[in-house]
Design goal:
- This protein has about 130 residues and is mainly alpha-helical.
- It contains five helices and no strands.
Length: about 130
C-alpha cells in the first residue's frame, strides 16, 4: 500500500468517525448546521481540487464518499434544506459520472453541488 493510499484511507476514516460523533451529538443536543455545512463545503472544494489535479481514483472516490456522508449529517429545514438536497443529488451524479470515467461531468456536477451548498448556507444563516 503506497503512502498516498494510506493517507487517503486514514483521512476518510477520521472523517467517518467525526460524522458518527456529530450524528450522536445531534440526538443529544441541537446540532450546529453552520459548522457541519461548512465541513461539507470544505470537503466538496477538496474533492473538486483533487479531480482537477488528476489525483488517483481511490483518493477522489474516498473524498466523494466523505462529502456525501458529511452532507447526510446536516440537519436544516425550509428552503435551505431544499438546496442542500439538490446539492446532495449533484454529488450523487458526480460520483456516478466519476465511476463511469467521465471526469469533466463529475467536476461539473461537484461544482453545481458546491453552489447549492453555499446557497443553502446563505439562506439558512442570513
Amino acid at each position: 500500500m503506497t503512502l498516498k493510499k494510506l493517507i487517503v484511507t486514514l483521512f476518510a476514516s477520521i472523517l467517518m468517525l467525526g460524522s458518527a460523533q456529530s450524528v450522536m451529538a445531534q440526538t443529544m443536543e441541537k446540532s450546529a448546521p453552520d459548522q457541519t455545512l461548512s465541513d461539507v463545503i470544505k470537503l466538496n472544494e477538496e474533492t473538486i481540487a483533487a479531480m482537477k489535479s488528476g489525483a488517483e481514483y481511490s483518493e477522489v472516490a474516498a473524498l466523494l464518499k466523505a462529502t456525501k456522508q458529511a452532507s447526510k449529517t446536516v440537519v436544516i429545514s425550509g428552503p435551505a434544506d431544499l438546496r442542500k438536497q439538490k446539492g446532495s443529488g449533484r454529488i450523487k451524479k458526480s460520483r456516478k459520472a466519476y465511476r463511469a470515467g467521465d471526469v469533466e461531468k463529475a467536476i461539473k456536477m461537484a461544482e453545481e453541488a458546491l453552489d447549492y451548498y453555499k446557497k443553502a448556507k446563505a439562506v439558512h444563516f442570513n
